[in-house]
Write a structure and sequence with these properties.
The complex is a heterodimer. By secondary structure, chain A is α/β, with parallel strands linked by helices. Chain A folds into two domains: about 240 residues; about 140 residues, abc type-2 transporter like fold, CATH 3.40.1710. Chain A is built from 17 helices and five strands. Classes of the chains: A alpha/beta, B alpha/beta. Chains A and B meet through helix 2, helix 4, strand 4, helix 6 and helix 7 of A and helix 2, helix 5, strand 4, helix 6 and helix 7 of B.
Chain lengths: ~425, ~375
């Protein structure tokens, strides 16, 4: 027993040698990420600022029709709560904003587009998207443009269809043209007022259903899983001869694994205090940010210990299985990203097909995220806790078995 | 050349004799192919239940068919009745329900004439999120044909004759042939964007796999630090040392890069073979240069190990892989991943990537030649 405790203390010393470096780097990372997210979420005066999509329009907005249409989009249309439209005079500036990620896309309006369209000459509009962005904003923009195409096409049919019908039924051409313009304005009015055709009833959410909740919990789980790479040099430096010697002196595989795991867990828990302090301080001293106001991080952080115990056991098992530094680091990364991705840690789980969700519901990352979801909703479930505990024991058991095989294979012990 | 290949093989042997490393290299393409196969039938992440108050109404049936058959981010599923649609919303099986009211065409006529009640569509939602607001644009597009025709009818009745033949007017409406897609998608380089058929769930794969290549670079740096402490390769001539360092780090990077190239093709995200090979080659060089620089700054294996996941996370967050944050451009341009992601669809970034490598390699060269440890 004494030897096991000494071994545990030795492991603790090895892990905590990394602490100063990890603290400094964590502070830098959190600072950089915090600034980016602060820039995104700080100004929450209206829903209009937190638009999903920012689109620029490049063109001659002196054209009265285009200027009117853009003004309508910016101030009257219901889409202003999900799309922010910005007029930009210079295409080079729009390209620069696109490159910086400040726009999802920009549209280049041909000269005199609307007056040409009214005359029957529908020119193609170029929509420029970023070549490097592979996010939903780009995909949503593409689908939106197709939707707009359909609406505009039907509007065109109404305007020109009326024009032809009027001409064929004896209306003088100049009058038919004026009436066609009136039809175009009616179309514009119907488009701007399209939400008026609906009766919207909200029945309310139950628990943590809003899209933000899984994102925060999922990202936390993903970050914890990736953090395991931090200790790959320590795990790679473990010595099988030392394990054999300890085994021969009575410190079996179980005691060794428990000693190393406990030291690793303590180290990971102490590192967690850094973001806990940062978020608590930010919530207290920074101007109101809805993200920090909405979630009680001081309540969340103690609860993170539960999934951390399971995640640490999983990382420990992966390192034990990998046996080397490069393999260990890569295995940690691919497991973290792969499990995290399909378990809803990056995008909500319901984004995935039903088969993927059903498979992911067996994974430890799924239950880690679920535990945090339940914690934030204030309804932690015993079932989730039991499953996390089961995974914890499973990973440690597998680690013990691998260690025993390794010791016996190298010719040690009884 | 033979000596170079022999040394390359020997450096690689350390990695390739680890069964777990081989297993990872083999498993990644298989998993990517499996994920691609499953997500190719992705149903869309906004789920809407459709129902009709009058299921026998042919116009409603047409609209519902159109919505159910369309693909994209919004997935619509038909329900047998309005109660089923409402229940599916309440139990969280769908995000919203669109219930088409009876006499839909009459309601549309009244809406167009300015009479706002009663509504044409009853929408039941748990919460009016941005995604559902955007999904309603698809509904608007589906209704637009009948709405526009109603405007035409009413304008005709008002200006020409109140006694009109609806069928003839419909022919006038349908006779207008549109000139195809209104929008043409291009990238900033001017290159045609084309139709991206890959599932939206596979879009981040390129960036995630590229981050894995960078991680393998960090692993090679840690290996190198350990070798240096054990005085391995101490007799390498200082003149050839920079090239040796580059090749050393490239061994692990290239192994993972080859697997990533294969995985990209299996994921459906690959562009032309020449562009993929060139951009990957430049990315490998950039990764090697970047990790060597980090190694020269941090020096100890423990510090590099501590920094690696944090740098990987930062690289993933600041680049448009999972999210596209607007305020991180200065951070983005110092990561090698940025040039790789952009080069996939913009040839100019192949040159910018080479420029990045020149800067990083020059910095590495200066530091290596002026460091006593080497």
């Amino acid at each position: 027993m004494n030897r096991a405790i000494k071994y545990f203390r030795l492991q603790l010393k090895r892990f905590f040698k990394l602490t100063p470096t990890v603290i400094v780097l964590s502070a830098l990372l959190l600072g950089a990420l915090g600034m980016a997210f602060y820039g995104m979420f700080a100004d929450s005066e209206s829903d209009e600022k937190n638009s999903l999509i920012n689109i620029g329009i490049v063109g001659d907005t002196e054209d009265s029709y285009l200027g009117m249409a853009i003004n309508a989009l910016q101030n009257l249309d219901s889409s202003r709560f999900s799309i922010a439209v910005e007029t930009i005079s210079d295409e080079a500036f729009a390209a620069e904003k696109l490159r910086r990620g400040e726009l999802v896309a920009y549209i280049v309006m041909p000269d005199n587009f609307i007056s040409e369209a009214i005359s029957g000459n529908m020119q193609k509009i170029t929509c420029v998207t970023s070549s490097g962005a592979a996010d939903f904003g780009t995909r949503i923009t593409e689908e939106l443009m197709k939707t707009v195409t359909e609406i505009v096409a039907n509007s065109q049919k109404a305007v020109y269809g009326y024009h032809r019908a009027a001409l064929d039924n004896g209306v003088p051409p100049d009058k038919a043209y004026d009436q066609g313009n009136a039809v175009a304005l009616e179309e514009l009015g119907a488009i701007l007022n399209r939400e008026g055709a609906y009766e919207i009833v909200e029945v309310g959410t139950s628990g943590a259903d809003a899209i933000d909740d899984p994102l925060i919990c999922g990202m936390t789980v993903l970050l914890l899983m990736l953090w395991g790479i931090t200790c790959c040099t320590i795990f790679a430096a473990r010595s099988t001869p030392l394990s054999r010697v300890l085994f021969s002196k009575g410190t079996g595989a179980v005691a060794q694994i428990l000693g190393e795991y406990a030291a690793y867990l303590l180290f990971m828990t102490s590192i967690l205090t850094i973001p806990a302090v940062v978020f608590t301080a930010a919530a207290r001293f920074l101007p109101s940010i809805p993200l920090l106001e909405q979630y009680n991080f001081t309540r969340l952080f103690p609860g993170i210990i539960i999934p951390l115990i399971t995640i640490a056991a999983m990382q420990f098992f992966l390192y034990e299985a990998a046996g080397g530094m490069v393999s260990g680091a890569l295995l940690q990364f691919f497991c973290a990203m792969g499990l995290g991705y399909i378990s809803g840690c990056v995008y909500p789980a319901y984004f995935f097909p039903r088969q993927v969700q059903d498979a992911a519901a067996w994974l430890p990352a799924w239950y880690c995220r679920l535990w945090l979801d339940e914690l934030l909703a204030g309804v932690p479930s015993l079932k989730t806790f039991v499953i996390l505990a089961a995974y914890f024991f499973l990973f440690l058991l597998l680690s013990v078995l691998i260690r025993r095989v390794r010791i016996k294979r190298e010719g040690g012990g009884a | 050349m033979k000596r170079f290949l022999t040394r390359w093989y020997l450096l690689n042997k350390r990695l390739l004799k680890k069964p777990v490393f081989i297993m990872i290299l083999c498993a990644v393409p298989v998993l990517i192919a499996a994920l691609n196969a499953v997500t190719s039938h992705t149903e869309g992440f906004v789920k809407i239940a459709l129902a009709a108050e009058d299921p026998a109404d042919p116009s409603v049936t047409r609209m519902i068919d159109e919505l159910c058959e369309s693909s994209g981010i919004v997935h619509c599923a038909r329900c047998t009745g309005t109660e089923e649609a409402e229940d599916r919303v309440r139990y969280g099986e769908v995000d919203g329900a669109w219930i088409f009211c009876d006499d839909i065409l009459g309601r549309i006529d009244r809406f167009v004439s300015g009479d706002k009640s009663p509504a044409c569509i009853r929408i039941i939602e748990r919460e009016d999120t941005i995604a559902l607001k955007l999904a309603r644009e698809k509904l608007a597009a589906t209704l637009s044909s009948d709405t526009s025709f109603s405007i035409l009818k009413q304008a005709y009745a008002k200006n020409v004759s109140p006694n009109y033949d609806g069928t003839k007017l419909r022919r006038y409406f349908d006779s207008v042939i549109n000139s195809g897609e209104l929008f043409e998608f291009r990238y900033a380089s001017g290159e045609y964007a084309g139709d991206n058929d890959a599932s939206y769930l596979m879009l981040p794969i390129r960036g995630i796999l590229a981050a894995a290549i960078l991680l393998s670079g960090f692993a090679m740096v840690m290996f190198r630090v350990r070798d240096r402490e054990q005085k391995l390769f101490a007799r390498i001539n200082k003149r050839t040392l920079p090239l040796f360092e580059l090749c050393y780090h490239l061994t692990g990077i290239v192994d993972v890069a080859l697997v990533v190239l294969l995985s990209l093709y299996l994921s459906g995200n690959a562009t032309s073979p020449l562009r993929e090979i060139l951009s990957m080659a430049i990315y490998c060089l950039n990764c090697a240069g970047f990790v060597i620089l980090i190694g020269l700054i941090l020096r100890k294996a423990g510090r590099i190990a501590a920094a690696a996941p944090l740098i990987i996370v930062t690289v993933i967050v600041v680049n448009p892989i999972l999210f596209n944050l607007p305020f991180v451009y200065p951070l983005r341009v110092i990561t090698p991943l940025y040039y790789y992601l952009q080069a996939a669809y913009n040839s100019a970034y192949l040159w910018y990537g080479l420029g990045y490598f020149s800067v990083v390699a020059l910095t590495d060269l200066v530091l290596i030649l002026n460091t006593d440890e080497y």
